[in-house]
Specification:
The protein is of the alpha+beta class and 216 residues long. The protein has 4 helices and 13 strands.
Length: 216
């Protein structure tokens, strides 16, 4: 889990705009429908949902999230159980994508849950949660993969796309994605809950087969 801080939004903007220096990596990225829950002043500037997607899925989004941060904020490779519409307002986002069919080539490991803490000298350390069960996570950096350690990843086929201001990416549920951004990029995304249908069953089959092979 990331280090979390509470501060006035104006203080956060001063850091992003480099008016003041502060140790750490600053990124508004709390994924709890933070646009509606924490930034109600911005609700008049964006649509509450994406009408064509709401009509296609027959539902409203579960969450609408606001994103703003530094270029040093990088999201590691992962997947979500949501249909994701990612809208860039300012700057650009860089996505590296893998379809669910690449699951056999994407390594997972089990790790103890931990939270980043920053020391007075600005260095990060991981503080494990005591007594917590290990959780699955992808240990591979797709931008610099260690193919000696994870040779199966060489068979994966990634897609790279850049989403610029005014553009929207539809990221289907269960697609793996690694995300970078330009400094000060502003974005809003809409999470629609996925359907646990044949697509989900197909992914579960791939996941089970990949785990079975890894255990041999």
């Amino acid at each position: 889990m990331p280090e979390e801080r509470c501060m006035p939004f104006s203080a956060f903007l001063d850091i992003v705009e480099k008016k003041v220096a502060s140790p750490g990596v600053f990124y508004v990225q709390k994924q709890c429908s933070n646009l509606t829950e924490e930034f109600p002043e911005l609700l008049g500037d964006v649509e509450p949902d994406i009408p064509w997607m709401s009509e296609a899925l027959g539902k409203k989004p579960d969450a609408v999230n606001f994103w703003l941060g530094e270029s040093s904020a990088v999201t590691s490779l992962h997947k979500d159980h949501y249909e994701n519409l990612y809208c860039v307002i300012s700057g650009e986002k860089h996505f590296l994508l893998h379809p669910p069919s690449d699951r056999p080539f994407i390594p997972y490991g089990l790790y103890p849950p931990a939270t980043y803490h920053i020391s007075e000298d600005g260095l990060y350390e991981l503080v494990p949660q005591k007594g917590a069960e290990k959780v699955p996570w992808i240990p591979l950096d797709p931008l610099n993969p260690d193919l000696e350690k994870y040779p199966e990843y060489a068979q994966a086929k990634s897609f790279h796309c850049i989403i610029k201001a005014g553009e929207m990416l539809y990221l289907p549920s269960l697609w793996f994605h690694h995300v970078q951004q330009s400094h000060g990029c502003i974005a809003v995304n809409y999470w629609y809950d996925m359907e646990y249908d044949l697509k989900y069953s197909y992914y579960q089959l791939l996941d089970s087969l990949a785990k079975a092979v890894a255990l041999k």
